């Protein structure tokens, strides 16, 4: 079953990319067709409009997107290579939530969560996490590949912990 946040987050992201003139409407339509094919094939890890635009269609330059968000939204950039998944938070959110939204909590201090996302231009992603974490969130932008690598490493660590238990 498809997670509804995947559809909503990608739809809002695509509209915002067009509205911010980072891609054209034609590029969005082409990417949406690929996205729907991936969803139909239940290939959910690749069901990301951002991934499709950057890596498959070469329609979006990630540094341009990141610079736009940093300048327009006044967010900081975080390199997730120096962080790990907050596995102790599994009762609050799941790794599937992170994959569905391309967002990961990477630190927590005094009840506030530091979140890195590749999907900051998608309001449903922001709302999803702020609702889930009671609004105690500080947002950062991160490269798409950085989020993916952290989550892939987290899955390996969680599998190893399960195997050793």
Give the tags:
single chain, GMP Synthetase, Chain A, domain 3, 12% strand, 165 residues, alpha/beta
Summarize the structure in words:
The chain has 165 residues and is an alpha/beta fold. It folds into two domains: 4-63, no CATH class; 76-164, 2-Layer Sandwich (GMP Synthetase, Chain A, domain 3), CATH 3.30.300. It has helices spanning 4-19, 25-40, 49-56, 62-73, 95-101, 123-132, 144-164; strands at residues 76-77, 103-109, 112-117, 137-141. Helix 1 (4-19) packs across helix 6. It is globular, with a radius of gyration of 16 Å. The two termini are 29 Å apart. The mean pLDDT is 92.
Brief synopsis:
The chain has 165 residues and is an alpha/beta fold. It has seven helices and four strands; from the N terminus they run ααααβαββαβα.
Strand order of the biggest β-sheet: 1-4-3-2
Distance between the termini: 29 Å
What percentage of the residues does DSSP assign to strands (E)?
A: 5-15%
Whole-number tally of structural domains? 2
Could you say what the CATH topology of the largest domain is called? GMP Synthetase, Chain A, domain 3
| Shape by Cα distribution | globular
What is the alpha-carbon Rg in Å?
Answer: 16 Å
Share of helical residues? 40-55%
In N-to-C order, the SSE pattern is HHHHEHEEHEH
SS content category: alpha/beta
